[in-house]
Amino acid sequence: MKRNIKLIVSCIAFIGLGIGIIGAGVNYFFNHSVLGMEQGLAGSTQNSDEANQVCYITPENPDADMTLEDTTEAVLEAQQTTQPETLLGQHTVSLGTCVFQQKKIACWGDSITFGYGYSDEAQLTNGGQIMDISGWTYPDTLQYYTGMDVYNLGVSGETSYEIAAREGGLTMFVAKNVTVKAGKSVEISIVDVDGNSVMLDNFNGYGGNNNQAENLVYINDQLFQLEKRNEKLYIKTYGNTQKGSVKLKKGMQVVTQAAHDVNADILVLQMGSNGGWDSYDELIAQYQAMIEKSGTQCYIIIGDTDNPTEAYDSEQYESDIEVGTKDNVWETALREAFGEHFINMRAFMIEYGLETAGLDPTEQDLDDLANGRVPEQLKDDYTHFNSYGYYAMGRRSGGREKLPGIPDVSGGFQGIHLYSRLRK
Predict the structure, then answer these.
(1) How far apart are CA 52 and CA 61, in angstroms?
(2) What angle do CA 396, 401, 403 make, to 5 degrees?
(3) Is the per-residue pLDDT at 217 higher than 90?
């Protein structure tokens, strides 16, 4: 009988101990999992023990380390309000703070960005190994060296105005009220803020070789497809989800699919050689509109790479040699406007393009260099590069923190490498 009583007491004690352990476990789970999930849902897509932490890199502090910092709302507000502004010429540029989460680069531009003229076969020696750069563009080079996702949003032949409209910096609008019925197309007019008609080569905004359907745009966050017939635009709903009709009112904003879908941490802009501007101030305003639309202060402005006497503003120059590797009038305006964010790519290609691409100068190259011109060996034609040229261009834009033996010709700013440290 006593043995049974002792056994019962022991069982009760064991059960109590088990309940205590289970209770502690539940409490631990609640504190570390449930509360952790609540914190994550409240303000972070990262793991709970990394919530509200991010790395900062600023152009003023290129040697910043990779330590994680608290990014709670109060801390962010305090940091953002103390960021310096630099007065450069007539334009005030906020250098800002670069906060990364997605680690994406968007390259907007014309045929230079698209990579027209790239080489079908091109190889170079990199670190003692043969590197195949056949078909490379400068965005390809950026992607290779930064490890980031890079969008090539270059369209051959586009003017700076068209690029800015495609990116969304220059806004487009429905010109007059239109009713779009399901399964039917209707004529539509699209205008800019001044009422000028807008007609892009491809309104989807993605440009060259892409897998997107042509001429897709968003109006009031709904997807439509445009069609060009006899120099007129027609619009219809896209997909089979629309029932009935949709009324598009005058003044509704029209956004290209690329401008709607692509949200990048870093903006690389290259444009202007095809015109679309009547003054340097107008071109600068287009750049600034694109930067403002992007929502990032992590951006790079790539200068025109044409030789001065072949550039869009060629009337400014009597010869290439008089300019050489100094800033020409156009480059001076961009440097005054954008400071460290501007790269004089033409000067870099003259001084270091061949060396960066691992090429020995030919007699023609030596003649070009002596006359202040970009070496012919880097080019496909008078304005476009081959893959060696695009490789060098991509390296200068930010492929490595420092090119061996090559000083920073931009005056301190090394390009995307300041931002690309966040790639790991």
Answers:
(1) 22
(2) 55
(3) yes
pLDDT in tens, 136-183: 999 999 999 888 999 999 999 999 999 999 999 999 999 999 999 988
Cross-strand bridge partners of residue 224: 217, 237
Q: In angstroms, how far is CA 257 from the centroid of its own chain?
A: 15
Using one digit for the tens of pLDDT, what is the confidence trace for 54-100? 222 222 333 333 333 343 444 334 333 333 332 222 222 233 455 55
Separation of alpha carbons 113 and 394, rounded Å: 10
Residue 351 has pLDDT above 50, yes or no: yes
Residue 199 has pLDDT above 60, yes or no: yes
How many angstroms separate the most distant Cα atoms in the chain? Answer: 117
Give the integer Cα–Cα distance in Å for 73 and 245.
43
Lookup: tokens for 423: 């790639």
Annotate 314-333 with DSSP letters as a single string. GGG-S-STTTTTS--HHHHH
Angle at 166 between CA 161 and CA 171, to 5 degrees: 75
HEC profile of 65-133: CCCCEECCHHHHHHHHHCCCEEEECCEEEECCCEECCCCEEEEEECHHHHCCCCCCCCEEEECCEEEEC
Confidence band of 214 (pLDDT split at 50, 70, 90): very high
Helix (H) or strand (E) holding 135: none
Per DSSP, the three-state class of 140 is helix
Q: What single-letter amino acid sits at 193? A: V
Q: For residue 184, what are its two tokens?
A: 């039917």
| Pairing of β 253-256 and β 216-219 | antiparallel
What are the structure tokens assigned to 61, written together? 């502090």
**Which backbone phi and psi does 189 adopt, to 5 degrees?**
-120, 135
Q: Please, which residues bridge with residue 247 across strands?
A: 179
Single-letter code of the amino acid located at 73: E
Residue 187 to residue 220: CA distance in whole angstroms = 18
- CA dist., res. 385 & res. 378, Å (int): 6
For 73, half-sphere exposure in the C-beta direction (CA atoms, 13 angstrom radius) is: 2
Q: Which of 310, 288, 309 is nearest to 92 (CA)?
A: 288
